[in-house]
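Hi all, long-time lurker, first post. I run a small reading group and we've been trying to get comfortable going from sequence to structure in the token notation. Rather than ask abstract questions, I figured I'd post a concrete chain and ask someone more experienced to write out its structure so we can walk through it together at our next meeting. Sequence below, copied exactly:
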Amino acid sequence: MTKQILCRNIKIGGGAPVSIQSMTNVNSKNRSELLMQINELEAAGCEIVRIAIPDIEAAEALKSIREKTEMPLVADIHFDYKLAIMAMEYGADKIRINPGNIGDKENLRKVVNFAKKKNIPIRVGVNSGSLEKEILHKYGGVTKEGIVESAIKTLAEIENFDYDNLVLSIKSSDVKMNYESHLLIKERIKYPLHIGITESGTLKSGMIKSSIGIGSLLLAGIGDTMRVSLTADPVKEVRLAKEILETVGLRKKNIELISCPTCGRTKIDLEALANDIEARLESMETRRPLKVAVMGCIVNGPGEAREADYGVAGGNGKGIIFAKGEIIKTVDEKNIVSELMDIIEKD
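-- Answer (accepted) --
Happy to help. Here is the structure in token form:
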């Protein structure tokens, strides 16, 4: 079990639930837009938000934002150690640095000493795209061994200043390399791991890479906090992160829809039906867990419906609606969604 650190009120590591992170993508100096996006992320289920702090104006905006939200905030710092100190002074609950670009050893010492003074955790980020030249030369390019060596070396630099309130992230855009790097390092460190697939791509390709890359790590018992990285609205990162955690069984799925892949027996527009029901379920305000089956014919319909709270099995322009495994009624195809939702909402 990893060491546990605290980011404001969120526990990371040490057996705590895997937390969901995202990063704002609006101008960090625009305080109103920044706060609006943080609030949107929080409403979507984000638990920790990272903010890029590229200059003094952004650090000053962080101070203002800190006064208006209780969301745990992480300052993302590159190149300027003074910005790291300023961000911590202005209310950052954690900082993310890459010691390799923060300046010389003395600058790193100043950052660590200030973090130690305020007991602020530091996330050490090592990406495959920014490995040290000597490591690239040693291994002949980017390798899992090189990523791990860089991470261990980077952690040691901070440990030498007698500080271990740390989180580590080692990320690659290569899903296989990302997975193998984590397998190599998990027994060699005591720190919580922030997992993800860096630069995973657009919404379409990034969802696939992130789901496989992050899901495989979680199923292997690796990961204490996570971020899905997409070239998209960060709210969509949070939604996918929640789905990944639900799918691997680390969070309870409140509403689950199962549907068959269709076949030659299907005599109903199952794709449209399933999408319509899914959209209606997502808009429902319910705290009770629900499992709904949408099946294309009676071959699997009754069986799946017995395992679901509610279900429908399509026929030739008709639909048989089930509840708790019992047939309730047969309705015309055009009325399936309204009839099913009426039964669910009234139950």
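A couple of things your group might point at:
The CA atoms of residues 135 and 141 lie 8 Å apart.
Residues 203-219 form the longest helix (17 residues).
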